[in-house]
Write a structure and sequence with these properties.
Four copies of one chain form a homotetramer.
Chain A (H helix, E strand, L loop, with lengths): L9 E2 L2 E3 L4 E3 L2 E2 H5 L5 H10 L5 H14 L6 H12 L4 H9 L9 H19 L3 H14 L17 H12 L5 H17 L7 H9 L11 H20 L3 H8 L4 E2 L12
Antiparallel strand pairs in A: 2-3, 3-4
Chain lengths: 269, 269, 269, 269
């Protein structure tokens, strides 16, 4: 069935003939294997360009910052899935990645979108950065959208990963433009939102990556790639010592059933 | 419900308190972000150790070798999925990873298992490497198992990525033990199998990684992590210029329906 | 980690003791197995009530209407996934379901939301049904949202499944309230949108289901459950005669590579 | 890329022209919608035949028996996934289905395979059913394979769903051939395995379905389709009252970290 108008698939990422695999214009075997690190190559495939040193430093730092954070819900889902279906590691990784959604890890891309709007507003209106930040944050509030990338369930202070990422960005000589935007948002939040919500890692990621030219719409790929690595480490631990079912047992110990029961049914003690 | 005996979940990968995230004994913010590349960190999370330089070189090379190979079936599945469900990039990546199975990319781990059996056979029996390879390959044939990691749909000669990976391994000073095992298998195949099946990239990966101490059962993670990166690059291209439905239209142009039809039904011209 | 305020999980769907499994207040083994059909039981689990005969007829009809439509993109994704990873049928089904998104099958729930808004607008404003439909469709246009459930890539006339579903609804004595809303939208579209977009199956599904009390937010479950059944049938055919790789081969026959190539690279003829 | 020899995709399930959708030789809109229940249609799509009344009764009963069993691991994975990624219901269902693997729900198909081997052994050797069962169960033990479908973490007696399914099969007049095989296995287990493992629902499913001609290799589809329905019901409850994060919080309350920590690190009290 034809859906949409285009029928000829086009791509600019990879082609090959019998001897050579071409990736973004380079010979994979001659120019890339052994010459680029994995994250450099990711940047090349995504953007068509090799990363500058600052971009490389910032990209590695953001990936490293969110690869692992303990037995979070997506890791639990992956380990339970592996315990039930050990024939398919790929299925357990997929189950974990499916939780990289708008609530937990998608905020990085949403924060990036907000930062770009603030920067555009400032440039077009000629107002100060803080005023531009206030305009956009008020818009989000009016539309009842959360301000993405601020506040944290655990930390009242800034998530410690924020300072670490900002340090890498500064030391690598990356543009601080979007770091400033991110901090302007933090400054205007208390007056507009009525709470002192601090920058969390999901705002820090676009703050440093947009400054090195990383494409905003590709930001969703950062947590997905990072978590793939974290999930694989957890699944290797799971292969050697399974806790998937122990996690699911613990999860249900306090469950309360608030539906009806047939006459005479007695819950187990 | 209690499934199995253990009820207390244990992990040695990550813990945290309000200020500090600890990963494999290190402080994530102080010791890791900005200091380790993404692939170094992956090795650390997986094994508990920072990689030696040879291990690092070989790990990057294997990941780079299989990240991307054009519009392969799993990339097609991911791009079709994104075209139909653009609200969920994570779902499109998951759909692509679900094709990293035993037929296409799972062979790396299976080849690694075969190489370890050959090495064990040689060590225990005191026979030559080629004899040990022949013993194990004959066992596979007797059990009607394919010899994993040999032969290729396109290339009659060795896949060009094999030489590139072996070069990296040699130049990095990595142990050549499992490269020798892999080449012994290649030598004994013609007599036993009756065909001249050459080493492909799925055999080259364990050949170089087992030599630097990468754990065999974690080999399944290599194609999964690599393909996550490749899929994200394809999905970013898909966001900017969609071909998911064009691929699915092309796929069905030659479809033949060989079931029954009701009286009077005429296929579209 | 604590995310959100609630810490005690509650559910009203199922509980059990050593002898009895209770589902929605009934004894699964005594009251349900052998007494309810699979789709009746689905309705019970979802809503807590057994379906009335009209609800049952309409539910079966909507599920049947969208279970199968040939080698659509999600079926292709599932069959390619199975061909690559035959050890995990569940992974291939999951890959197919991941394409049940906003573009292809999610429109049913979106159309249901639009119908409820029209009905509320009519009831609150005291205007005619067509006027209420026009108000809401104009709102969608102003917000640049597509009108969900109208128009079809193939059919200029109404999709034939629409009439079949409306017939079932009428014969079963179901309320026609939302069928009338759906037809009012179809009447006002040409003036507002400038094109004669006809009701398709994604609008017909909420039109008949909302009339029998099926919950609007559960509408997303209808295509997902239906497609699970269709995917399983395709995967059973795939087990017996694999076409997953043939589909992916066809998909790429006309691919055009529009990136750069290294000097001297010649595409295969 | 061409993988394998076949390049022309064929299917016998569905075709269509501009007016008519043909499924297994029938006109979907004229012959199927409103005339077949959802589970009847599933049987038709899978096998190409409409089910006989006994097959229909048994199919509905098996699907109903395993649709729902409370907050099992796959339901937890799905609810955690939805809480983190509410934009994609399909992703949460997929995450749940990925746990329908060899350990938890795949046993139905494996038990079916064992029953067919016993029946073939009996027919070919002319020995008694119990002797044939003993031969095959001994083979499984010799190969260190578990006997699929026997024993249960909770119930020492037979799972109550077994009797319910056998009742439906008997009352529907279905062949009892494979019920007898299943009971023969139960009788020979104590002597061979040294434990009194009773038939569980995963063995009862093939016992009743193989008797009505349901294809053995399609048995994997039964838990997958059934659980799709159960997962949708849970996700609708999750939409209205989220417990995904409460489950994951509970899961980690007793976690023990047994890795290293940096000097001075103190776990939260």
């Amino acid at each position: 069935m034809k859906i949409g108008k285009e029928t000829i698939p086009r791509t600019a990422i990879c082609t090959s003939n019998e001897e050579t695999i071409v990736v973004r214009g380079l010979d994979l075997c001659g120019d890339v294997i052994g010459k680029l690190s994995f994250s450099e190559y990711f940047y090349l495939l995504l953007t068509g360009q090799r990363p500058q040193p600052a971009a490389q430093a910032v990209l590695d730092a953001t990936l490293v910052a969110i690869t692992e954070h303990g037995l979070v819900p997506s890791v639990q889902a992956a380990r339970m899935t592996y315990a039930a279906a050990p024939e398919a590691v790929q299925g357990a990784v997929a189950a974990g990645l499916l939780g990289c959604g708008s609530v937990i890890l998608g905020a990085a891309e949403q924060a990036g979108e907000m930062f770009e709007r603030i920067e555009t507003t400032r440039a077009e209106s000629g107002i100060s950065l803080d005023d531009a930040a206030a305009v956009v944050v008020r818009d989000y509030r009016a539309a009842r959208r959360p301000v993405p990338g601020y506040g944290h369930p655990l930390h009242k202070a800034r998530d410690p990963r924020v300072a670490a990422l900002f340090d890498v960005s500064r030391c690598a000589g990356a543009s601080q433009r979007f770091v400033e935007v991110a901090e302007a948002v933090e400054r205007v939040i208390p007056d507009i939102v009525g709470k002192d919500l601090r920058l969390n890692v999901s705002a820090a990621i676009p703050a440093v990556l947009l400054g090195v030219g990383f494409p905003r719409r590709a930001l969703r790929g950062i947590p997905i790639l990072a978590r793939s690595a974290g999930l694989i480490a957890h699944l290797f631990e799971e292969m050697n010592h399974s806790i998937g079912f122990a996690l699911s047992y613990q999860a249900t110990r306090e469950v309360q059933y608030d539906g009806e029961v047939p006459t005479g049914f007695a819950a187990d003690a």
